[in-house]
Amino acid sequence: MTTTTLNDNSNDPNISDEELNIFVDALIHLSKYDFSEYSEKSLKRRIEKISNDQKINLIQLIDRMHNGSISIEDIVKSITVNTTELFRDTPMWLSLKDGILPQLAKQDNINIWHAGCSSGQEVFSMIILLNELNLLEKTKIFATDINYDILEQAQKGVFKLSFNQFYVENFNKVLNDDPQKIQVSFEKYFDIDKTKDLIKAKPILTQKPQFVQHDLVKDGNVFNTKFDIIMCRNVLIYFNSSLQNKVFQLFYDSLESNRFLIIGIHESMLGPLQPKFDKDKQTYKKRPY
Question: Cα separation of 46 and 80, whole Å?
Fold first, then answer.
């Protein structure tokens, strides 16, 4: 680990490149986590927030990491972004429902990987679609995230109603877009408790996926499976271009031919893997070998 000294008296909230490297080196030295290829701007912003929340400066934060008075897992939890919604970006879900999933309907088995699944709402959205299209029984779903605590929350499937009331609107836009068809009730998949301000995913949603702690930076494809769909939305935006290309290579190697990678609306594939995919908005279809 580098021995460069930080300025303990600095009141400047901005983190320099040198300070960022010291923090990342400390995290590598003290844990299994490597953030050296994350977007510097995003990582600096997250570290500043941790320091501000703790009311300490960066050198004090690193000291607490070394003496164990602050949890490394809590720091990683604060660095990684855990925002997701049911049927977020409804046009993408409509394209899944009307275009991508019907292409897989004749297969005997369907394999899906949600990489960076956070608290699970995107996974549950997929399960709902699969169930409504009568594809759920033959589908295997892996849901992974670097953050163990957020995976535990996903397995419970319990969320604040007041914070997530727009879920019902998204649900209806995707599932009930055709007034000529029988309408699907939100309560088919969620129990709602207005007095406790909670919604709870029913077992059909929480028991189907295999939730696995996984680090995209170093863990690779640990599932011994080739996938038909890989969902990794609003994760790659926090990686630098070098790490993005490594993860795109992982996804390419993990996909069946002519199958689908779906990324976030503000993300794109610009590196050497781009010619190996056909792009349609947020969906990248792996070209035949």
Answer: 8
Domain ranges of the chain: 17-79, 90-286
Residue scoring higher pLDDT (2 or 149) = 149
As a whole number of angstroms, the distance between CA 260 and CA 208 comes to 21
CB 241: neighbour CB atoms within 10 A? 12
Distances (CA, A) of 42 to 56, 81, 236, 269, 272: 20, 10, 12, 19, 24
144 near 135, Cβ under 8 Å?
no
The CATH class of 90-286 is: alpha beta
Neighbours of 279 (CB within 10 A): 12
In the chain, DSSP assigns E strands to 110-115, 139-145, 158-160, 190-193, 198-201, 210-213, 227-232, 255-263, 277-280, 283-286
**pTM of the predicted model, to two decimals?**
0.87
Q: Using CA atoms, how far apart are residues 230 and 226, in angstroms rounded to an integer?
A: 10
